Amino acid sequence: MHYGDDRPDALPHSPFKAIIAPRPIGWIGTLDPGGKANLAPYSFFNAIGSSPDMVMFSSEGAKHSSTYARERGEFTFSLSTEELAKQMNITSGDEPSGVNEFEVAELEYGTSVVIQTPFVAASPAALECVTLEVRQLSDRHGTLTDNYLVIGEVVQTHIKDEYIKDGRFDTVAARPIARMGYHDYTTVTEAWEMRRPKR
After folding, report:
1. Measured distance between the N- and C-terminal CA atoms of the chain, rounded to whole angstroms
2. Of 44, 148, 174, 191, which one is least surrounded by beta carbons within 10 A?
3. What DSSP designation does 55 have?
4. pTM for this structure?
5. Domain ranges in the chain?
6. By the 8 A CB rule, do 110 and 126 touch?
7. Pairwise CA distance, residues 146 & 180, whole Å
8. What is the pLDDT of residues 81-100, one digit of tens each?
9. 40 burial via Cβ count (<10 Å: 0-12, 13-18, 19+)
């Protein structure tokens, strides 16, 4: 099977997000113009470079997170884990402007060091980010879409001590969750190592 713009009847729901999976969840914290905290999960999220460390998230629509990240020039990322899955899902609700999702999900603030925006205190790891660029994306014809790409540089990293093992962040112990397609999620429960070939 293959298709372009016209998806066949055999696929009533787009498989795109199920194919590009699993996708880490960017649990993005921002501040609105009045300084009230905002928190929302984004599955179009990833690391895009190191030295300096850089991350991105993409918003389908000019939602609060992308708008506030542009206006305030900063945002935080908190690792979304199996233990925090219920709270993460609560913060995915389409809340009106001015509603504090930290409070709705009963999450405590983690205090940032370099920026003002809080992160999720209960998360095993969090990143403070300075916004580098917010761009409305165009399609292949040059037509603007309703997708907004946010790129940030990591300026401070927070890790709970119990997740550091032998000098490394213990990802398996943290049990991060990731988004797949439809309403599906997965949990990181094991790791295996493979080194690049030497030339």
Report:
1. 39
2. 191
3. E
4. 0.94
5. 21-187
6. yes
7. 22
8. 999 999 999 999 988 888 99
9. buried
